[in-house]
Amino acid sequence: xxxxxxxxxxxxxxxxxxxxxxxxxxxxxxxxxxxxxxxxxxxxxxxxxxxxxxxxxxxxxxxxxxxxxxxxxxxxxxxxxxxxxxxxxxxxxxxxxxxxxxxxxxxxxxxxxxxxxxxxxxxxxxxxxxxxxxxxxxxxxxxxxxxxxxxxxxxxxxxxxxxxxxxxxxxxxxxxxxxxxxxxxxxxxxxxxxxxxxxxxxxxxxxxxxxxxx
Length: 214
What we know:
Layout: E1 3-8, H1 12-23, E2 28-34, H2 37-47, E3 51-55, H3 63-69, E4 76-81, H4 89-94, E5 99-102, H5 107-118, E6 123-124, H6 126-138, H7 153-163, H8 168-175, H9 179-193, H10 198-207
Parallel strand pairs: 1-2, 1-3, 3-4, 4-5, 5-6
Helix pairs in contact: 2-3, 7-9, 7-10, 8-9
């Protein structure tokens, strides 16, 4: 089955460019376009696509507010912005976005992102990862959360490495375990903590006090 996508951007040419790019892939289908956040919310609730590309800066209801209104829906939202230093990065991820990309990202990166989030994972560009860490660094240090007590010592190690941005193969290499074992640890961490994906795990690691910026 094709990955069904809604594209939300206030510029018609940008929407068309994304549509042409994604529809050219055999496993991806753009099912609707939206010119603002209000239209995006209606389209997503009506069509229940797998993924939505959501421009952060749109007139009226912007992408951040639209993402907040869609909290709890199954659709996975990738927030798009012109600059990776957009002040809405942290808020968008907290609102439930599954990924964050700049519009300048190459076509193959965008296509990969759609497939990654459709499969249930999250994605961030390197610049955005730095931005999220900076947001945590500016906040008061949290106390260690008792929620961490449900994790084993090995799972705590894995969560720390996830917070550093390591992929499953990189975690495996760091801990001298197999890729499959690393993937299993990540899956168990998400299940135990009731988290949706790696992005939520990174946010949790900082907000719980497990990891301190720097």
